[in-house]
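Appendix B.2, paired examples.
Example (i):
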Amino acid sequence: EVQLVESGGGLVQPGGSLRLSCAAFGFTFSSSAMGWFRQAPGKEREFVGGISWSGGSTNYADSVKGRFTISRDKAKNTVYLQMDSLKPEDTAVYYCNTPLLLRDNYWGRGTQVTVSS
């Protein structure tokens, strides 16, 4: 069964850090590019950043560039999102995905990140 399970969210103060995880099941993770997305209340889901299947290439939305870092562990079928210098505007539900599942409009449950003092 195909599944994406996001975890690691929580409440953090501005300037703080969190590391999100996304465990992948049911498809060939090792050969799949992965991406992180987020959806804030009342807004459309937006792209945060992505990583190539090899892990050798990453790209980020301008709003998070220099603050967020994506990595992957093929042995654990897991992709990570390290978030530093968090801002209140980073508050959102965060999701991971891959092109294969995006085509079918499959999304996991996401993990809530709230940045507030």
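Example (ii):
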Amino acid sequence: VRLVESGGGLVQPGGSLRLSCVVSGVTFSDTPMAWVRQAPRKGLEWVSSIARAGSTSYADSVKGRFTISRDNAKSSVYLQMDSLEPEDTAVYFCATLRAYYPAEPLRFLEARGQGTLVTISA
């Protein structure tokens, strides 16, 4: 399984970014997907998940600001991030899930990409 993220960068508070992730090595349309992040000196934090059929779930910290989506024809998952805050600074990873289970979003995490760095700073 290979996941390649892109779209990170340096943005001012209040700005927007759109992350992309291209996935290969799995039947993408059958695979639930997630975005997770890791801030400096902190553990892995779940951000959002999307089921095969498109149902979505979000961490409370990003709800209303971030939007996850997928394009099965392109084997890609996206994360639109708006109203960015300094606390959103982290390396963002897309990941495959064995199952879509919002109650325990990290429990079924499988493969991850190398990540893309998002820095929110004035």
